[in-house]
Amino acid sequence: MGRRSPIAASGHVRKAPRCRLTSSGVTFRFLSSMFGVFKKRRRAALRREPLTVAERAIVNKNVPFVAALDDDDRKELEGLVRIFLAEKSFEGCGGLELTEEIKVTIGALACTLLLHRETDIYPGVDAILVYPSAYRAISRAREGGVVIEGEQARVGESWMRGVVILAWDHVKSDASEPAGGHNVVLHEFAHQLDGEDGAMDGAPALGARARYTSWARVLGDEFGDLSKKLHAGRPTDIDPYGATNPAEFFAVVTEMFFEKPRALRQRHPALYGELAAFYRQDPAAHAASVAHEP
Asked: Model's pTM, two decimal places?
């Protein structure tokens, strides 16, 4: 997914003619500006529309760590969920009939990652495809100079181009064990945040250059430590799947950050600090009011 540079076809490059702003250009800029104003107003109106009693009951049941949120955070989360449900398309696959429970649960989990952050609410996501259970997908692996294709069972995927895929039975089972350390919705939408800078590489858009230096050092050390432990056959509290690559490591530790925050803070304080700075949340500080994390 690297950016391509323009290459001259001959030994010399012609100087590009000076561009003039035409009436069509003015029209485009005007329409773009008007669309931005309309989008902002529409979202402001959606934020003011609270979840219904039934929708709140779904969130309380299937997203139990919202119990630790204060009133302001709950209000912010509800506004994000309302926008998410209005702007994203859901599609049931493999015979699954979509319900409000499915959409609200996925929306609330995905939007938990957005609290306190300046966000355009997953601009790269157009559709969420939901299967009833694990599904088969084509996988490709390269061995030497040979590409081998096969089928692989999956419970979630996150694409750079507009789509997140989830298995509903895993979404629900993850919700029923909030301290289990696994949550497929948090995992796949962490990939979306990672990809907002143009590449899913384990380093999302962090802002200041100094943040990238600290992020690379801390997460690089933790990723290397996880890989070494696994190769040595030693136990680790971080899901071994995180050793696949840096992108999967970021998604895996995001799950742990929200589901087992006190354990992560105690055993990996520097890693917890990096994630707390990125997500602008401190779930470990609130975990004492929630009974499910030991």
From this structure: 0.83
